[in-house]
Write a structure and sequence with these properties.
Family: Belongs to the LysR transcriptional regulatory family.
Number of helices: 13
Oligomer: single chain
Keywords: DNA-binding, Transcription, Transcription regulation
Distance between the termini: 51 Å
Organism: Comamonas resistens
CATH class of the largest domain: Alpha Beta
Protein name: LysR substrate-binding domain-containing protein
Helix content: 40-55%
InterPro entries: LysR_HTH_N, LysR_subst-bd, WH-like_DNA-bd_sf, WH_DNA-bd_sf
CATH topology of the largest domain: D-Maltodextrin-Binding Protein, domain 2
Structural class: alpha/beta
Order of helices and strands: HHHEEHEHHEHEEHEHEHEHEHEH
Length: about 300
């Protein structure tokens, strides 16, 4: 059944006339008559009593209920997708989010809770993976948006910085001075798997100290990394705000990265990334608003740590 036919059927039922229905829908009466006849052929039942006024048969009453539901759903979906940022009705659907584990652990819970409070009809799916994996998932259409380290290098993706993190060296005991190259060569770094941007900065930091082959042990999960650092297995490079938030759970300590190179490597922007704006769903628009992201610019209103931690 075509929506156009159902709309004509509804108009005839409401007006009691083929002619009036044709006027309301800006078409000719013969077109309305043809669509009603087609509907009757499709459902295999008479839908209207051709009297004056025209009125629906019992089968017509049944179809009218479903027709109104389908037309209302169609009109609501069309209004949302054409002007999602100005949607008046409730926003529904699934929002598929990708995130680095550190961002998911520290920043996202209060923001997702706020989104859920404002739009309870949105269902959330969160997938945690390194930056490189998220970009692959986003371009393949398996997630709607992502939180990655830095802007997306691909020209078909749009990026907005939303958080700024300071990376620090994490150890199992207080450090009076930054470890030497010999100290690092005798130890290991505990990190996420290949593709993690923090891992890349470990390699850059070690290269700046003349260490060409740094030993990195992949542990995969944040709690495992912090637990193993606390147990004295090695060092880690993590965001300062995250380490401070986890110090009650793990006996770890941190030190800022020294020198010009260290300071350049320490500060990283976490960006909200998504595909073409024309393809955004109402749920993505709603989430961008919570984040303070203006889809029409490359700027965003940074989310205060108190609101996102």
């Amino acid at each position: 059944m075509q929506l156009k036919s159902l709309r004509m059927f509804e108009a005839v039922c409401e007006s009691g006339s083929f002619g009036i229905a044709a006027q309301r829908l800006h078409t000719v009466q013969s077109n309305v008559t043809a669509h009603i006849k087609k509907l009757e052929d499709e459902v295999g039942a008479q839908l209207l009593v051709r009297a004056n006024p025209v009125f629906p048969t019992p089968a017509g009453h049944t179809l009218l209920q479903y027709a109104r539901q389908m037309l209302q759903s169609h009109d609501h979906a069309l209004a949302l997708l054409q002007s999602p940022q100005f949607a008046l009705g409730p926003i529904t659907g699934v929002l598929r989010i990708g995130s680095m584990e550190t961002t998911a652990a520290l920043r996202l819970p209060p923001l997702l809770a706020r989104l859920r409070q404002q739009h309870p009809g949105i269902d959330l799916e969160l997938a945690v993976s390194p930056t490189a994996s998220q970009l692959d998932e986003l371009r393949a259409g398996r997630i709607d948006c992502a939180f990655i380290n830095g802007a997306a290098p691909q020209s078909d993706l749009h990026s907005w910085p939303v958080f700024r993190e300071e990376l620090v060296l994490v150890s199992n005991k207080p450090l009076k001075q930054f470890p030497s190259a010999d100290d690092f060569c005798a130890s290991v770094f505990l990190a996420f798997r290949q593709g993690c941007s923090y891992r890349q900065r470990i390699e850059l930091l070690m290269a700046s100290m003349g260490i060409s082959a740094v030993r990195i042990m992949e542990l995969g999960m944040l709690d495992t990394i912090l637990g193993c650092v606390a147990a004295g297995m090695g060092y880690a490079l993590l965001s300062r705000s995250l380490v401070e938030a986890q110090q009650q759970r793990f006996d770890v300590h941190w030190m800022t990265l020294p020198g010009k190179t260290g300071r350049e490597l320490a500060w990283v922007d976490t960006c909200f990334v998504s595909g073409a704006l024309e393809g955004w769903s109402p749920a993505v628009h709603a989430f961008a608003k919570v984040l303070g992201v203006d889809p029409q610019s490359r700027e965003s209103r940074p989310v205060p740590l108190a609101m996102a931690a």
